[in-house]
Amino acid sequence: MSAMISTRTVTINAAFLQEIKDVHQLLWETLASLRELSEQPDASNGFLREFARLLNNLRDQLALHFSLEEAYGYFDDPVDVAPHVSQRAETLRGQHQELYVCACELVERVERAYDGRKWADVTLLAGAYREFHRQIVEHEEAESELIQEAYASDLGVGD
User: Could you report how far apart the first and last alpha carbons of the chain are, in Å?
Assistant: First the structure.
């Protein structure tokens, strides 16, 4: 009696893959611009305007980035994935909502800062962004590690 081996093939539309890469690149560029801006905050209208513009872009980019990851970036069939990998993927997926809400709150805070234009408010906001930046970078690194681990175990590299 011969054993039946099942293999799955995934076909990815090249244009769609390029769009995902472009969205990812734009997200990282916006994160870097915000990080740079947050390192030298000032209470000027120009600073607040640019900070608000970039935060609004970031919020929209995160919504698209997370929806693409959830639709196409996680494992389709958890049965084919080791339980510890699947659990970590679920934890990371759950962080998307938290990170998105945090980005929305940052947008609201910078919009409120227009009213007061107090130095303390601006420095606190810049610090809040730097903390958010740390969280999103850790999240993305954890996702990359998870993908590498799942890929390595799928190929039997760890055997």
Answer: 27
Kindly state the DSSP code that residue 81 receives in the 8-state scheme: S
Cα 155 from Cα 19, distance rounded (Å): 27
Distances (CA, A) of 153 to 15, 23, 90: 29, 28, 18
> Can you tell me whether residue 44 is helix, strand or coil?
coil
pLDDT digits (tens, 9 = 90+) for 60-113: 999 999 988 888 765 555 445 567 777 888 888 889 999 999 999 999 988 887
Of 79, 26, 55, 44, nearest to 130 by C-alpha is 55
For the cut 50, the answer to whether the pLDDT of residue 41 exceeds it is yes
Closest CA to 67 of 24, 18, 8: 24
Mean pLDDT value across the chain: 80
- From the list 139, 147, 135, the residue with the least C-alpha distance to 74 is 147
